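Task card 7
Instruction: Convert sequence to structure tokens.
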Amino acid sequence: MNILVCIKQVPGTNKVEIDSETGVLKRDGVESKINPYDLYAIEAALKIKEKLNGTVTAITMGPPQAEKIIREAYMMGVDNGYLVSDRKFAGADVLSTSYTLFQAIKSIGNFDLIICGKQAIDGDTAQVGAAIAEHMGIPHASWVTSIKSIDESFISVEQDMTDYTETVKIGYPCLITVEKGIMQPRLPSYKRKLSTQNKPVNI
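Output:
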């Protein structure tokens, strides 16, 4: 099972200024962290790997300093990491972000399952995951609150549809976006930090 997790570096504070000319967040000098929803996506991927074997790869789009969150993902148990970085990507909206990630994913290789956090806390659109799936032409399920069952052929998940819940069964390749609470994210391991400190991040 080849699993890809899309993660994002977000400001670690809500006291972030916006550039009045570009409308883009001023991220320079601002403390940053992994988007909280993406921690749940990483944990879901690692749990699936433990059950079905395979590999977990993390990908992020951002400035060079976003390498930091790939290294944190390594400390949680992720096998491979990719940083998609170019100044031209600054201020990208949902369409351009999802298209850029789609092209990057296509160049990296084939994945059975792509997992995204429900949304990024700095943009709050909750659309990038579904847009990636649409670009790729694969089925997807959003707002996933639990994984009911999974095997080598299908994944069955429960979705929060606000007024009701829905269980869907999807064949691979597919994409899901997960809610907080799907499972408790593990803490980064100091032992893994030492063992992966020289592990390359593909840029």
